[in-house]
């Protein structure tokens, strides 16, 4: 990834009451936001540029969450955005929830991406004191301007005063020619293909000739290189690497196919020190499975039900902490037919979101999206899920495999 000498840095200098000192101004090279902030849910906006006035945002008990928007400021498409926010928080409850991030829009104002560089302050500070939070992201193609959003979800006060922006350059990765080719591996039992142009996996179980497909890998995973090969022990692998745009950091996804069984490991790796805000930050690197047709059903070992037919369209999205439930889900064709399952090996730091999702073709079905959570505010180590495929037996076959699998 090539980054210029200058690029985007977003500075929110927040001041407040008591011993908080008013900032003198923005450092040289910064451009100040020229527009007053707006509260997006229709409440009266507050100007943050009145001389001598501190920004003083307060969410009171019983009020609905609000998002305070600062901006817009022009940026280049695919610009590298790094922002720093100095803020002061006065807590009203023990579970304060404040979220700071960027939102990218095109020249017509259409939203392109939100929660870019999502971060949060340290709530353990009892009295209002300056603290600095920093994060970075890469804005999508067609971005014309960005906004800084301060999202308040629980009662507290947020003090502040000035905002600015400067540039770190444009995201211009050296994309390998492999990005234009499908990656294929096989162990005789399973054929696995990753299609970079569609950003999705296809898995054929050669015993049943059944094709399983995933939803696309999220656009936030910038693709720069796709390779297939073998490990020293002979296991076929697909390796996908690039830049995770939401935090402007490198990542690697490795699919490791076992040599003599119908299963593979799907591993996600990124910087161990990558900051991810506790309670609110997630990374969704495991594409969800699409149910092939109406003869299939989702099996979830959590939630209010167990089997969800493909025709079930009334599901409201609900997330479950995998450490509190059997960490698996799967898909079956009939009571005794073939199926496949996903076992969340890194279950301690994961969520499973049960939802109804539609594809680009308009067809939809129940599915489960795995989300990775931070560990003490950072990524810390790689995360694994295991995919296993059954020839027959329906949900009983999946249950038996989960109960008797070897570690």
What's the end-to-end separation, in Å?
Answer: 38 Å
Sheet-strand content, in percent, reads: over 45%
Considering DSSP H and I runs of 4 or more, what fraction of the residues is helical? under 10%
Task: Count every helix, treating DSSP H or I runs of 4 or more residues as helices.
Answer: 1
Please give the radius of gyration in angstroms.
23 Å
Work out the number of β strands: 29
Write a brief structural summary.
The chain is mainly beta and 407 residues long. The chain has 1 helix and 29 strands.
Top keywords for this entry?
407 residues; mainly beta; nine-stranded antiparallel β-sheet; 1 helix; 29 strands; 3% helix; 46% strand
Describe the protein in words.
- The chain is mainly beta and 407 residues long.
- The protein contains one helix and 29 strands.
- The chain has one helix spanning 394-404, and strands at 8-13, 31-32, 38-39, 55-59, 66-74, 80-91, 98-105, 111-119, 131-138, 145-152, 156-160, 162-166, 183-186, 190-195, 200-205, 210-214, 221-230, 236-244, 249-257, 263-270, 289-290, 296-300, 307-309, 318-321, 328-333, 339-344, 350-358, 364-372, 383-390.
- Strands 17-18-19-20-29-26-25-22-23 form a nine-stranded antiparallel β-sheet. Strands 1, 2, 4, 6, 9, 11 and 12 form a seven-stranded mixed β-sheet that branches. A five-stranded antiparallel β-sheet has the order 3-5-10-7-8, with no helix packed on it.
- The longest helix has 11 residues, at 394-404.
């Amino acid at each position: 990834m090539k980054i210029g000498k200058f690029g985007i840095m977003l500075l929110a200098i927040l001041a407040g009451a008591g011993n908080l000192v008013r900032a003198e101004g923005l450092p040289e090279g910064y451009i100040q936001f020229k527009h007053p902030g707006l509260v997006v849910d229709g409440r009266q906006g507050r100007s943050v540029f009145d001389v001598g006035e501190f920004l003083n945002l307060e969410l009171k008990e019983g009020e609905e969450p609000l998002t305070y928007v600062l901006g817009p400021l022009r940026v280049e498409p695919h610009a590298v955005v790094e922002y720093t926010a100095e803020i002061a928080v006065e807590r009203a409850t023990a579970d304060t929830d404040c979220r700071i991030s960027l939102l990218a829009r095109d020249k017509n104002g259409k939203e392109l991406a939100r929660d870019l560089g999502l971060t949060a302050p340290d709530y353990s500070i009892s009295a209002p004191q300056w603290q600095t939070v920093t994060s970075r992201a890469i804005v999508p193609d067609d971005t014309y301007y960005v906004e800084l959003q301060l999202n308040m979800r629980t009662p507290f006060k947020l003090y502040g005063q000035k905002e600015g922006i400067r540039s770190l350059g444009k995201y211009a990765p050296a994309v390998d020619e492999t990005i234009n080719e499908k990656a294929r591996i096989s162990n005789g039992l399973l054929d696995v293909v990753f299609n970079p142009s569609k950003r999705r996996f296809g898995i054929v179980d050669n015993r049943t000739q059944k094709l399983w497909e995933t939803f696309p890998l999220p656009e936030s995973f910038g693709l720069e290189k796709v390779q297939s090969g073998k490990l020293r022990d002979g296991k076929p692998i697909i390796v996908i690497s690039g830049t995770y745009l939401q935090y402007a950091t490198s990542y690697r996804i490795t699919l490791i196919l076992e040599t003599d069984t119908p299963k593979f490991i799907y591993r996600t790796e990124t910087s161990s020190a990558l900051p991810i805000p506790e309670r609110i930050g997630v990374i969704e690197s495991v594409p969800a499975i699409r149910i092939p047709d109406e003869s299939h059903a989702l099996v979830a070992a959590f939630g209010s039900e167990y089997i969800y037919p493909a025709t079930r369209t009334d599901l409201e999205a609900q997330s479950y902490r995998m450490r509190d439930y059997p960490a698996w889900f799967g898909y079956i064709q009939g009571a005794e037919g073939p199926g496949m399952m996903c076992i969340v090996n890194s279950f301690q730091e994961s969520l499973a979101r049960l939802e109804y999702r539609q594809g680009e073709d308009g067809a939809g079905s129940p599915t489960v999206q795995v989300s990775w959570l931070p560990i003490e505010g950072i990524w810390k180590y790689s995360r694994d899920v295991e995919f296993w495929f059954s020839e027959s037996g329906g949900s009983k076959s999946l249950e038996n495999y989960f109960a008797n699998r070897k570690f």
